[in-house]
UniProtKB/TrEMBL annotation:
This is Teichoic acid transporter. The keyword Transmembrane helix applies. Pfam families: Polysacc_synt. It is a multi-pass membrane protein. Keywords: Cell membrane, Membrane, Transmembrane, Transmembrane helix. The keyword Lipid metabolism does not apply. The lineage of its organism: Bacteria, Pseudomonadati, Bacteroidota, Bacteroidia, Bacteroidales. The chain crosses the membrane at residues 12-30, 42-65, 86-107, 127-148, 160-179, 185-205, 226-244, 256-285, 313-331, 343-362, 374-392, 398-421, 433-455, 467-486. It comes from the Bacteria. GO terms for cellular component: plasma membrane.
Length: 505
């Protein structure tokens, strides 16, 4: 039964991911056109502000999953129930803190945004912040039920609820947008769906899993152990928020809602770009963990690091190359007029993220060696530098200044500093890595330059949908053939051929 849960849960997880991507690609352009830049900017701004408060989770969600599974395996039901009670009370306290902080934010909306926003926009932002604060405060204590379901490996139910929510949420949103409702209504719908989901999780845990909570036993030693485990997760959450929420907040303060809307579109595209790398790296994690754990030498680890990086680069370079050529007309067709600058912001993020995305295996190596401290501290320092330069860049150069600050921080921390660390302290052959990536890049660089020249020389209008689709199809076929023969080695070709051989046999 559990094996079925795992397999079905994994399958439904991929369905959920693909569905969210499809919904995002189909629903987002409709929403952008119905809302308009100003309203979408207000919605994105409010969401980015509240996103900072999510770090109050302190990494406890992951800790609940870990220790619930641990106690369950050890048959310690009472300790498990006492832990639930402890975290439930902690989350209530965190929820109250969220309400206090959210209230302070709501009361100071005028002071933060009145310079570049109208009185009506400020008022709508305040309403959305109130709703989002209530949503978050309710979510904190109720989130334990989702963590418990994960620990009990009830993946099928979780994924089914997620899929239903992913479908119903945009459907209801579209109906409201057609009627004439705007950003505030979207926040109301999101809040209602979230509350319903959390209540469903509670009933499932209470009446299907028969989960009980015991109050009155607060184990300070256990809390200390959990806090140490959660600390690094908490740091990473802070880093993510600084990188991907600061821009909207700063732009809202100094440049207004239109800039926030354009920047948010770029962030959405960037997150899609990152998803591809995460999906690829997961396949190699068990192997590298075993290798590091059982004493693999530096050459073996370097070989795997390079091999994995090359495979990730195959996919990431294709997406990046296609976006360089077709990104501008795609944004125009997808998002509509007025979002052209999102192309340049996205390009900055894509290029700056390429290094850490094709080196994801480095994180696994550090985790296996229990040497995550340097990376976490380094990223925190760089992230706060990013915050400072984002404010300066936005005030001086606007949206692109904010993007330059974020991209520069990513290149400095996740690119330069970590590569020096991988080479000097982890013994990874970074020089050979970049030599191989450099050789692989010759074909894409030349091909992209020729494509851009062709489009400009022949004045091909890629904003015509038929022309766009035909051009993309030709690009994909030619790129795949050229990359296959000029950039890939025998091992990589075999990775693609092997599954086809199994199907045909």
């Amino acid at each position: 039964m559990m094996i079925n849960q795992l397999k079905a849960g994994a399958a439904l997880n991929y369905v959920s991911i693909m569905l969210n991507m499809v919904v995002g690609l189909v629903y987002t352009p409709y929403m952008l056109r119905m809302l308009g830049q100003s309203e979408y900017g207000l919605y994105s701004l409010a969401a980015s502000i509240i996103a900072y408060l999510t770090v109050l989770d302190l990494g406890f969600g992951n800790a609940i999953v870990r220790y619930t599974a641990k106690f369950e395996a050890e048959g310690k039901k009472r300790e498990q129930q006492e832990m639930f009670g402890m975290f439930f009370l902690l989350y209530i306290g965190i929820g109250l803190i969220a309400i206090v902080v959210g209230t302070l934010l709501c009361l100071n909306v005028d002071r933060m945004f009145s310079v570049n926003m109208t009185a009506l926009e400020v008022n709508r932002t305040r309403i959305m912040l109130w709703l989002m604060t209530f949503n978050l405060a309710f979510t904190f204590p109720m989130s334990i039920w989702g963590s418990i379901m994960t620990a009990y490996e009830r993946f099928v139910f979780q994924r089914l609820v997620s899929i239903v929510r992913s479908v119903l949420n945009p459907v209801v949103m579209i109906l409201l947008l057609v009627v004439g409702y705007k950003a505030v209504a979207m926040v109301v719908v999101t809040t209602l769906f979230n509350i319903i989901t959390l209540i469903i999780n509670f009933y499932y845990c209470r009446y299907k899993l028969y989960v009980k909570i015991r109050f009155g036993h607060f184990n300070s030693a256990f809390l200390k152990e959990v806090s140490i485990y959660s600390f690094w997760i908490f740091l990473n959450a802070i880093i993510d928020r600084i990188y991907w929420s600061t821009g909207q907040f700063v732009l809202g303060m100094y440049r207004g809602t239109v800039a926030v809307a354009v920047y948010s579109v770029a962030i959405q595209l960037t997150q899609m770009f990152m998803m591809f790398s995460t999906a690829i790296s997961g396949v190699f994690l068990p192997k590298v963990t075993a290798m590091v754990t059982y004493g693999g030498n530096e050459k073996e680890i370097s070989d795997l690091f390079i091999r994995t990086g090359r495979i990730q680069y195959i996919v990431m370079s294709f997406i990046l190359s296609a976006f360089v050529v077709f990104g501008r007309p795609f944004i125009q067709l997808w998002a509509g007029e007025g979002y052209e600058e999102a192309y340049y912001v996205s390009l900055l993020f894509f290029f700056s993220l390429l290094i850490p995305l094709i080196q994801n295996l480095g994180i696994t190596i550090l985790q296996a060696r229990n040497q995550m401290r340097f990376r976490s501290v380094c990223y925190v320092i760089i992230a706060f530098c990013c915050l400072a330069f984002s404010i300066y860049g936005t005030r001086k150069w606007g949206m692109m200044g904010c993007a330059y600050a974020t991209a520069g921080a990513l290149l400095l921390g996740q690119g330069l500093v970590m590569n020096i660390y991988y080479k000097g302290r982890q013994g990874i052959d970074i020089s050979r890595f970049w030599c191989e990536i450099g050789r692989m890049s010759i074909m894409p660089v030349i091909f992209v330059i020729l494509c851009l020249w062709t489009v400009n020389h022949w004045e091909i209008n890629l904003t015509i949908p038929v022309v766009f689709i035909y051009s993309v199809a030709v690009f994909v076929v030619l790129y795949a053939l050229l990359f296959w023969f000029m950039s890939m080695n025998a091992y990589e070709r075999n990775l693609f051929i092997s599954p086809l051989k199994k199907i045909t046999i």
